[in-house]
Fold this sequence. Notes:
Layout: H1 12-32, H2 34-53, H3 57-86, H4 93-129
Helix pairs in contact: 2-3, 3-4
Amino acid sequence: MADSIGHLPRHPMRILKAAKWSMQGLRAAWLHESSFRLEVYLFLVLAPLGWWLADDGVERALLIGSMLMVLAVELLNSAIEAVIERYGAEFHELAGRAKDMGSAAVFVLMLNAVVTWAALLGPRLLHALTP
C-alpha cells in the first residue's frame, strides 16, 4: 500500500505490515492460481537439487534464483490478470494484449531458468556420461 504520510521514514512496525500483506498475496496466489502452485511444486523439488548439484554459492544463487524469478513474475502476471478481470470479463484488445504479455514474461523467465540450469549443469552431465 502507498504511504499516507508522504516520503517520511517508515516506522519499523511497517515492515511487519508489509510482511503481512506479502503473505496475504502469497496465500491468494496459492489459493487461486494453479500455475503458481505448479511452479511452487517444481521449486520445492528443484531447489534442493540445485543446492546439492551446485559447486559454489554463485551457482546456487543462479540455479535457485532463476526459479525464484519465475515465481515472482508469475505473481505479477496474476496481479495483472486480476486487475483486468476486475474491470470485466468481456473481450478488449488491450486487456488481451496485457494478459498475453504477462504470460510471455513468465515464459521468458522459464526459458531463462532452463538455459541457466543447462549452462551450469549440462557440461557436468555430458562429462559424467562420456567414457
